[in-house]
Design a protein that fits this description.
The complex is a heterodimer. By secondary structure, chain A is mainly alpha-helical. Helix content of chain A is 41%, strand content 7%. Chain B is elongated and about 125 Å long. Classes of the chains: A mainly alpha, B alpha/beta.
Chain lengths: 215, 730
C-alpha cells in the first residue's frame, strides 16, 4: 500500500513536471517566434556610434560591416575618422577598456575634410562617382563633376580612382557656425599649468629642491 | 492694476543706470564706412543682392532673407559697396563672417519709401510681410526674426511687451520710452492687430524706470483709440535681475511657467521687446526698414556716456569717439550688458541689430575676477537660479563632460543669465562651463544628424548597387536560356540534316554536285557551327564560361602535381632540383600554349579532324590537357592560362617585386598619359591642361614609387644576404 502510494506520488510529480515543462516550452517557443528581434540590436547600437564616413579605413567595406565585426570580436580601435571619442563611446557601450587608436589604420584628422574637384581639370570619367559610397558626387560622362559638400563624409575614396588627380581633400576651416565656448580651466588644470611639475607632497618638494640645489 | 507674480531666485546687482541717462538720444555723425554682417540674427545668413561697386541708396535691401527663419539686410546710408568679404563681427568668438562693406557718400539719400497709418485696414499677412521685408529682428539681444514670432500656429490671448531692461548699465529702452512713447504705442497696436487683438496687452516694466513709465502713461491717455484696439496695460514690478528673460517675464506677469522645451506661443503668449515695437512702427507707418537702433554707450572709460541713435553697421570705434572713450582706462570693452555681454576683440567691429550696449568700464569698476576656487557646495547658485536648475550639479557634470546627466538636469533650460556666477563665493565661471557644454551637445547633435544622413545615403547606395547587380544577373540568365533554346534547335536541325542529307544538299547550292556524304556532313556541321558562332554571341559566351571552368580545373591539377614535387624537394632543398621543377613547369606551360596556338591556327581552317594530331604530338608533356575541338574555347584557354600565370607569378612575388610591378604600372600610366597629352596637343584639345597636370602628378607619384623601391631594395639586400649564404652552404 505504502509502496503504491509512493509510486503514485512519484508519478504525479513526474507528470506535473512534464506538464509544466510542456507549458513553459510552448510559451517560450511562442515568445521566440512572436517577439523575435530583427537583426542584431548590438550591431545596430555600435553602428549608431560609428561616424558613417564609410571610408573603409578599418578594413571593412563600410561602417555597418565593421559594427558587425566588432560584435564578432573585432578590435574597437580601427576607426580613424571617429577617433578617440568614438573608441571611448564604444568602450563604454561594450563595457571594455578603451584602447588607443590603432595607427595602422590611419590617424585621427584634426579637422573634418571634404573632397573638392578642381572642375577645370575634370575630364568627366565618372570614376569618382562610382567610388563614392554616399552618392555625394554629381556629374555625367564627359561632363564636369562636382561634390555636394554637405553630403561628403570626407572618406577620400574618390581621390585614388581619379585619372587626372583633380580631387583634393580640403579641411573645413572652423567657422562661426561650429564655434562654441570653451570650458574654462578647472582649478586643478590651472594649478598644473602654473606648476608644471607639481609636487604636492612636501617631502618630494624638499628632494626636488635639494636636487636643484645640488645641480 | 493686475496681479503680479514672483520668480524663483534672481539677484540685485548695482544698477549703474544713471550714468547714461544724462541727456536725450543723440544722433551720430555719418561714418565713412558701414560694415553689415550678413548674419545679424538667429537663423540662416542673408544672401547678398548687390555686387561690389554697386551704388546703393539708404534703405535699399542689399541682402535678402534666405529661408523662413532669416532676415534681410538694408543699406543704412547711401554709398558704394566696396567689398563683400570676411570681416571680424561682434561675436564672442572674435571670428570673421561675410559682411557687405559700404563706403558712404555723405548724401544719405533715401530710396523711395512710404508707410501708412491705416495699418488696421491691412491684413495680418500683409503687415507680417512688411515687417519681414524691413528686416526687423528682436532688438533685445537675441536677434530672433520678428516676423517668425508673429506667425504662431496657436491662438494668442496675451501680448507682452518687454520693457524690463533688467541688466545693469543699459538704458537704451528706458530712453526710447521716455522720448518716443507715442510711437511705441502705435507699434504695439500694430502687433495687437497682427495677432488678432489678444485679450490682454501688457507692458512689463521694472520699478526703476519711473520716468519711462510716466511717459507711457501719458501717451496712453493721449492715445486716439480706434474702435477694436485692445486696452494696453502698463504693469510695474520690483526690480530684480533677470526678470527681463522672456520666460521669467511671462511668469511675473501671468503666473504661468513656459514648460521646458515649449514656446510662449504654446501658452497663447507672444513676447516682443519694446525696441522692436518701435522698429515695427517705423517700418509700417514710415516704410523705413531697420537701419538704425538706440545703443547705450556707458562706463567710466567714457567721458560722455549716453544713448545714441546709431546706424547699423557703424564701426564701434566711430561710436566710441562720440562718447569720448578713453582707451587707456578700459581693460576690456564689452558688447551687451555686464551680466550677459561678451568682450570685443577689436573696436573695428560694427554695431549690429542686436547691439543694445557698449560697456566701456574702467578697471576699478569692473575688476578682473579672482581666480576660481573649488566649489564649497554652499548652494547659493541654486537659490538664485531663475530657471530653478541645480547649478552645482550642472557644474560637476560639465566638468566631467557627462552630457547625458547634463541633459537630465535640463541644461537646455539655462538662460545663461550669470546669476549663479555672480553669487558664487568661489568665483567659479559657472556660465562658461554651461555654455561650453551646450556648444558641445549642439555639435554632437549636429554630427549625429550628419552621420545618420550619411548612413541613410550609404544604405540607399548599397541597395541601388545590389539592384543593378540583380538586373544584370537576370539579363544574363535570360540570354543563357535563349542560347540554350537556340542550341537545341540547331542540334535538331543538324540531326534532321544527317537523317536527310539530300535536303541539305539542296539547301546548299554550292555543293550541288555529288560528293561523299560523310565529307559533306563534316563540312555542313562546320559551316553550321561558324554560322551559329556568328549568329549567337550568347552561345560563344556560354562556351567561353565552360572553357574557364575546365581550364581552371586542369591547371589546378597540374599545379597540385608541382606542389607535390615541391614538397618532396623541401626535405632536400637543392637548387638543382628546384631548377628542374621550374623547368618542368615552364615546359608544361609552353607545351600547352603551343598546343593551343596550333589549335587556333587549325581551327581557323575549320577542319576538326586534322586539328588534334600535330597538337597532340607537341603536348605530350601536358598530361592534364584534354582535347577540345572548339576554336573559341581554345582562345579562352590561352587567355585563362595567361591570367593564371600572372596570378601565380604575383602570388610568388616578393614585396620588392610587387613594388617594382607597381612602379612599372605607374610608368605605363605615365607613358599613356604622355601619349594622350601629345595627342591632345596635336589636336589642340581643350583638355591639354588637365593632361599636363595629370602627367605632372603621375611623375611625382613615379618618383615616390622609385624612392620606395630603392628603400625596399636596400632592406631586401640586408634581409636576403644571410639567407643566401645559408642556401649556398647547404
Amino acid at each position: 500500500m505504502d509502496e503504491l502510494s509512493s509510486l503514485e506520488l512519484l508519478l504525479t510529480a513526474v507528470i506535473a513536471l512534464v506538464a509544466l515543462a510542456t507549458v513553459f516550452g510552448v510559451i517560450l517557443g511562442y515568445a521566440a517566434v512572436s517577439f523575435k528581434v530583427e537583426g542584431n540590436p548590438l550591431a545596430e547600437q555600435i553602428d549608431a556610434l560609428l561616424p558613417q564616413t564609410q571610408c573603409g579605413n578599418c578594413g571593412y567595406p563600410g561602417c555597418k560591416p565593421y559594427a558587425q565585426a566588432i560584435v564578432d570580436g573585432e578590435e574597437i580601435n580601427k576607426c580613424p575618422p571617429g577617433g578617440q571619442a568614438t573608441i571611448e563611446a564604444l568602450a563604454s557601450l561594450l563595457d571594455v577598456p578603451a584602447p588607443e587608436l590603432d595607427a595602422e589604420h590611419g590617424a585621427e584628422a584634426e579637422l573634418k575634410s571634404v573632397a573638392y574637384i578642381r572642375e577645370d581639370e575634370c575630364i568627366g570619367c565618372t570614376k569618382c562617382i562610382q567610388a563614392c559610397p554616399v552618392d555625394a558626387i554629381l556629374g555625367a560622362a564627359k561632363l564636369m563633376h562636382t561634390v555636394i559638400v554637405d553630403e561628403c563624409t570626407g572618406c577620400d575614396l574618390c581621390v585614388e580612382p581619379c585619372p587626372v588627380d583633380c580631387i583634393d581633400m580640403l579641411a573645413i576651416p572652423p567657422g562661426l557656425s561650429d564655434w562654441h565656448w570653451q570650458a574654462p580651466h578647472s582649478p586643478a588644470e590651472r594649478f598644473a599649468s602654473v606648476h608644471t611639475d607639481a609636487n604636492l607632497i612636501a617631502t618630494d618638494r624638499g628632494t626636488d629642491a635639494t636636487r636643484d640645489h645640488a645641480a | 492694476m493686475s496681479k503680479i507674480w514672483d520668480i524663483h531666485g534672481g539677484i540685485h546687482p548695482a544698477e549703474n543706470k544713471q550714468q547714461s541717462l544724462g541727456g536725450p538720444i543723440q544722433a551720430v555723425p555719418l561714418p565713412d564706412v558701414l560694415i553689415l554682417p550678413l548674419s545679424q540674427h538667429i537663423g540662416a545668413p542673408a544672401a547678398p543682392l548687390v555686387k561690389v561697386g554697386a551704388k546703393v541708396l539708404k534703405g535699399q535691401m542689399i541682402a535678402a532673407a534666405k529661408g523662413f527663419v532669416s532676415a534681410p539686410v538694408h543699406a543704412p546710408s547711401s554709398g558704394v559697396v566696396t567689398a563683400i568679404e570676411e570681416q571680424t563681427v561682434p561675436h564672442a568668438s572674435g571670428m570673421q563672417a561675410p559682411c557687405i562693406v559700404i563706403a558712404t557718400d555723405g548724401d544719405d539719400s533715401w530710396i523711395a519709401h512710404s508707410g501708412t497709418t491705416l495699418y488696421r485696414e491691412k491684413s495680418a499677412e500683409e503687415l507680417i510681410a512688411l515687417i519681414r521685408e524691413a528686416g526687423i529682428t528682436g532688438l533685445g539681444g537675441a536677434g530672433f526674426p520678428s516676423a517668425v514670432k508673429l506667425q504662431p500656429r496657436q491662438t494668442i490671448n496675451t501680448l507682452i511687451i518687454n520693457a524690463t531692461e533688467c541688466e545693469p548699465y543699459i538704458t537704451a529702452d528706458d530712453q526710447l520710452m521716455r522720448q518716443r512713447a507715442d510711437d511705441i504705442l502705435v507699434g504695439i497696436d500694430i502687433l495687437a492687430h497682427i495677432l488678432g487683438d489678444p485679450e490682454r496687452v501688457l507692458i512689463g516694466i521694472e520699478d526703476n524706470k519711473p520716468e519711462a513709465q510716466k511717459a507711457l502713461a501719458t501717451a496712453l491717455q493721449n492715445r486716439q483709440v480706434t474702435e477694436n484696439a485692445p486696452a494696453i496695460e502698463v504693469v510695474e514690478f520690483p526690480t530684480k535681475y533677470p526678470s527681463g528673460g522672456e520666460k521669467q517675464l511671462i511668469q511675473i506677469l501671468t503666473g504661468e511657467e513656459v514648460p521646458s522645451g515649449q514656446l510662449p506661443a504654446d501658452l497663447g503668449i507672444v513676447c516682443q521687446n519694446i525696441g522692436t515695437t518701435h522698429a515695427i512702427y517705423r517700418a509700417i507707418c514710415h516704410g523705413e526698414p531697420l537701419i538704425s537702433r538706440v545703443t547705450t554707450v556707458t562706463g567710466k572709460a567714457c567721458d560722455k556716456p549716453g544713448n545714441f541713435e546709431v546706424l547699423i553697421g557703424t564701426p564701434v570705434e566711430h561710436l566710441l569717439t562720440e562718447a569720448e572713450f578713453n582707451n587707456a582706462l578700459c581693460p576690456n570693452l564689452v558688447m551687451g550688458g555686464p551680466m550677459m555681454g561678451f568682450t570685443l576683440a577689436s573696436t573695428s567691429v560694427p554695431i549690429i541689430k542686436s547691439s543694445n550696449c557698449l560697456l566701456a568700464t574702467s578697471a576699478e569698476e569692473n575688476p578682473a575676477p579672482p581666480p576660481a576656487q573649488a566649489c564649497i557646495r554652499c548652494g547659493h547658485c541654486a537659490e538664485v537660479c531663475p530657471a530653478n536648475l541645480l547649478p552645482q550639479q550642472l557644474y560637476w557634470h560639465a566638468q566631467s563632460k557627462n552630457y547625458e546627466r547634463l541633459e537630465a538636469h535640463h541644461l537646455g533650460d539655462c538662460i545663461e543669465c550669470g546669476a549663479c556666477s555672480y553669487v558664487c563665493p568661489s568665483s567659479i565661471p559657472l556660465v562658461q562651463y554651461y555654455r561650453a557644454a551646450k556648444g558641445e551637445i549642439r555639435l554632437m547633435a549636429e554630427e549625429k544628424r550628419q552621420s545618420d544622413r550619411a548612413r541613410e545615403r550609404f544604405e540607399h547606395h548599397q541597395a541601388r548597387v545590389e539592384r543593378e547587380e540583380k538586373e544584370k544577373a537576370a539579363k544574363r540568365e535570360a540570354r543563357k536560356l535563349a542560347a540554350e533554346a537556340a542550341k537545341t534547335k540547331r542540334e535538331a536541325e543538324a540531326k534532321a540534316a544527317e537523317e536527310n542529307p539530300e535536303n541539305t544538299t539542296k539547301n546548299t547550292p554550292a555543293d550541288g554536285e555529288t560528293k561523299d556524304t560523310a565529307e559533306l556532313d563534316i563540312v555542313q556541321a562546320a559551316l553550321a557551327r561558324v554560322a551559329a558562332n556568328k549568329a549567337s554571341p550568347q552561345d560563344q559566351r556560354k562556351r567561353f564560361e565552360r572553357a574557364i571552368e575546365t581550364t581552371a580545373a586542369r591547371l589546378a591539377k597540374a599545379e597540385q602535381g608541382l606542389e607535390a614535387l615541391n614538397k618532396s624537394s623541401d626535405l632536400e632543398p637543392s637548387t638543382e632540383y628546384l631548377a628542374q621543377i621550374e623547368q618542368q613547369r615552364a615546359t608544361i606551360e609552353q607545351a600547352r600554349l603551343r598546343h593551343e596556338e596550333a589549335k587556333n591556327k587549325l581551327a581557323a581552317l575549320n577542319t576538326d579532324q586534322s586539328a588534334a594530331e600535330p597538337a597532340d604530338g607537341k603536348a605530350q608533356a601536358d598530361t592534364a590537357t584534354t582535347n577540345t575541338d572548339d576554336p573559341g574555347l581554345d582562345r579562352a584557354a590561352t587567355a585563362i592560362a595567361r591570367a593564371q600565370k600572372n596570378a601565380a607569378e604575383q602570388a610568388s612575388m616578393s614585396p620588392q617585386q610587387k613594388q617594382q610591378k607597381q612602379r612599372d604600372a605607374l610608368q605605363n600610366r605615365l607613358n599613356k598619359a604622355q601619349a594622350r597629352l601629345a595627342q591632345a596637343e596635336s589636336e589642340g584639345s581643350e583638355q591639354i591642361e588637365a593632361f599636363t597636370n595629370a602627367v605632372a602628378t603621375l611623375k611625382e607619384k613615379l618618383e615616390a614609387a622609385d624612392l620606395k623601391l630603392a628603400d625596399l631594395d636596400s632592406n631586401c639586400a640586408q634581409d636576403k644576404n644571410p639567407a643566401n649564404t645559408t642556401e649556398e652552404n647547404s
